[in-house]
């Protein structure tokens, strides 16, 4: 009765014991200090991040880094190992010979993959003596995850939420507050940079870049050194924490005897894509698999498909170091798309490098195409996906339709990075205006 | 590292194969036809429900009823077996010697236990020739579940949503529409009863009783007989469908070698409480366990603790049959509490009978007490619970604090009937006004 190839038997004991640090295999371009244009040192980064985060960010030698037991326990508490599920009903609807699987990062209590790094960063900050942690959040997924994690490890947290999301997604703010976080809309009047932006344009809706500047400013200006900053994507150490996704996935696919032809993830700053894909890319680099990797971004924020590969700041206010990455420019202000988690001007340097050397591919879709994929997935598999994750769904569906045209039994795996239960404003707007809410086949 | 007694290994193969029909063990008071005050017949109910629902509603002879394979497959698709989890962090916070477990009905894609009956009813209606299904919904949990289920089995669905919830929870409406359902606020202008209510008071916020009248009216007035009505709680067959919860729970507790001292559920119409408790009550009736059962209701809607045990209508418009039950009167209009799913004037007759003969106990808590329990649970276990389910959490916490006073290592199991991600308005209001958001210990 129940087909087995969409179910694995992994348990909490199978939660990975190490993170995979792909920088040790492919190298990572130096991060530059904009004042000197020389590579940053650990001392340069010390006012911003806690010591362990700095060490991990600059580590290009250790291929694997132990996951501390308290972090693994928190992973277990909050739902890891996450399921790998086969999308039988989506396959049937598409009438495709392709097999479609998805990794369910939506099952975390904060609704996305973001907890994987939030738990690690909260743990290290607590251990390294931080008392207050600052951060930015776009759609609110990262802020929710860090609030829960800081509550779990007993740390104070201050979150700068991009104002356009703050207003579009008021319930995300309530979630952060329920977990005990303090939330400001960014630009805010509580930092010098925020004040300067508001002075120019009081109605400015903000960007992740602006929120990052505010959060970093608040950390570095604390004379006690007990306030540190935490980043939810883009940085190498954040991407490394996310590799629990891809490692679990490989164990699950090995158990089910699957080798994917295609792996698809959405991409903003790069962390969910990196965590999902890097462990399999490692296999590909060693010649063990021939999987292709597809990153899907919004046409409104096309950092890979339309950006330039060069050094740029990580924030709008130019107070972060400079990263070699695909960028739309640190002053780029995207439209207020509902996939707020993907509204970032740059891209993780390792992902950028892998895209530049053609290890991974990228494609972009517009908001209508994304919500069509979202509704198609909701009506077939029952799960309401995040608009961000729906980029991956659209990418996977297009590959499945290609397989249908070619009559090839391809295996496609995508990362369902989060659910969309707090994105119903976007769904409501889409349903109101669109006569064909599903992808037609 | 990972304690084992909060984890079980049940898989889709362990999804129950039969529902438990407690009416065959304890009998059920006759349902009366108000026109004749004689017991209803299957023919009386035929214009309202599909044939199988009628048969199941009146069945007091079969102790177990087979779950059809397509229903079990849908249960598997949508996340059954649901986890049984131990609330270690809540226990630590309360400093109680009690062990607290919770059954996670929140993991369903529609966020509550309601799918258990929605899937069954959609399947039977499709099989019995129904083309359009009507229903009521309070908080929107039932409407979401029935929309997804009707989409799954290819049926049209029309939902009357209590107006106060329609306005308080606009995103629930979008979820139903995402799944393809049609939603009207109740009272609505599309039924005679709705029109009559609106004529008296255009601003009336509605009740479940009003919405039921509208949905039943639309079904019985279809001359083709292809429109039927579906109920989300209160009826015996709905409670029976929910017994998958309690049966799984018993298998999980047997595996972990646990016998609960207390089982706690929230209660509105009675279906989640019944599904959770009836299978263990069966064990108690056979003298196998000495578990106590606690139903928790809102002080604003105290049907068990303040209601009368007598025959009453199931709806406000007096077009349903009469049920022997604890009732606040079919014209009772509760305040607009955030636990919209518990705003019902009556109570399932079997639960009523078990309460009347003291097999189960009941207690009520007010909204502040409920949200304190909700925030306490969110900050310890990481999961944001539905306001409805938070009644069960409050009940479980009070029992755990009693156990602490007596220094007794009691085992307490509660049903987490749903998550609260779509109830953040209630959380936001509470956090704004409450200086002590957690239960202090």
Question: Biggest interface pair, residues each?
Answer: A-B, 45 and 45 residues
Write down the oligomeric state.
Answer: homodimer
Judged by helices, strands and strand pairing, the structural class of chain A is alpha/beta
Distance between the termini of chain A: 28 Å
At the first level of CATH, the class of the largest domain in chain A is Alpha Beta
Q: What's the number of structural domains of chain A? A: 2
What percentage of residues of chain A falls in helices of 4 or more residues?
40-55%
Strand order of the largest sheet of chain A: 5-6-16-11-12-15
Q: Please report which band the strand proportion of chain A falls in: under 5%, 5-15%, 15-25%, 25-35%, 35-45% or over 45%.
A: 15-25%
Give the mean pLDDT of chain A.
95
Question: How does the major sheet of chain A shape up?
Answer: 6 strands, mixed
Using the 3D structure, state the CATH architecture of the largest domain in chain A: 3-Layer(aba) Sandwich
Global shape of chain A: globular
Radius of gyration of chain A: 20 Å
Protein name (chains A, B): tryptophan synthase
Cofactor (chains A, B): pyridoxal 5'-phosphate
Keywords (chains A, B): Amino-acid biosynthesis, Aromatic amino acid biosynthesis, Lyase, Pyridoxal phosphate, Tryptophan biosynthesis
Enzyme class (chains A, B): lyase
């Amino acid at each position: 009765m129940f087909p087995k190839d969409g179910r694995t038997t992994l348990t909490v004991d199978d939660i990975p014991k190490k993170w995979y640090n792909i920088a040790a295999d492919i190298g990572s371009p130096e991060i530059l200090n904009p004042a000197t244009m020389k590579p940053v040192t650990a001392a340069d980064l010390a006012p911003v991040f806690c010591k362990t985060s700095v060490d991990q960010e600059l580590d290009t030698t250790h291929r694997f880094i132990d996951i501390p037991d308290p972090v693994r326990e928190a992973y277990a508490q909050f739902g890891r190992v996450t399921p790998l599920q086969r999308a039988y009903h989506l396959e049937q609807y598409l009438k495709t010979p392709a097999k479609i699987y998805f990794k369910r990062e939506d099952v975390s209590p904060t609704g996305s993959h973001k907890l994987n790094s939030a738990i690690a960063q909260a743990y290290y900050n607590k251990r390294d003596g931080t008392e207050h942690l600052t951060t930015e959040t776009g759609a609110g997924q990262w802020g929710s995850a860090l609030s829960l994690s800081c509550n779990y490890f007993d740390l104070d947290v201050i979150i700068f939420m991009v104002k356009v999301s703050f207003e579009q997604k008021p319930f995300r703010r309530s979630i952060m507050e329920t977990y005990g976080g303090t939330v400001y809309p960014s630009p805010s009047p509580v930092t010098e940079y925020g004040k300067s932006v508001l002075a120019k344009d009081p109605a400015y809706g903000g960007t992740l870049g602006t929120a990052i500047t505010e959060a970093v400013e608040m950390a570095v200006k604390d004379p006690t050194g007990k306030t540190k900053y935490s980043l939810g994507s883009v940085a190498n150490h954040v991407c490394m924490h996310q590799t629990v996704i891809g490692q679990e996935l490989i164990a699950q696919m090995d158990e089910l005897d699957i080798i994917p032809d295609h792996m698809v993830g959405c991409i903003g700053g790069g962390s969910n894509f990196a965590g999902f894909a890097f462990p399999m890319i490692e296999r590909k680099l060693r010649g063990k698999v021939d999987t292709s990797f597809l990153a899907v971004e919004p046409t409104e924020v096309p950092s890979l498909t339309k950006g330039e590969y060069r050094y740029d700041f990580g924030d709008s206010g130019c107070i972060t170091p400079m990263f070699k990455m695909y960028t739309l420019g640190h002053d780029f202000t995207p439209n207020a798309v509902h996939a707020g988690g993907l509204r970032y001007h740059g891209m993780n340097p390792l992902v950028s490098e892998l895209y530049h050397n053609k290890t991974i591919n990228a494609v972009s879709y517009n908001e209508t195409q994304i919500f069509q994929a979202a509704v198609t997935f909701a009506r077939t598999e029952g799960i309401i996906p995040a608009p961000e994750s729906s980029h991956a769904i659209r990418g996977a569906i297009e590959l499945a339709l290609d397989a249908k045209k070619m009559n090839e039994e391809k295996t496609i795996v995508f990362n369902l990075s989060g659910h969309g239960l707090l994105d119903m404003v976007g769904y409501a707007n889409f349903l109101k205006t669109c006569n064909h809410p599903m992808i037609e086949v």
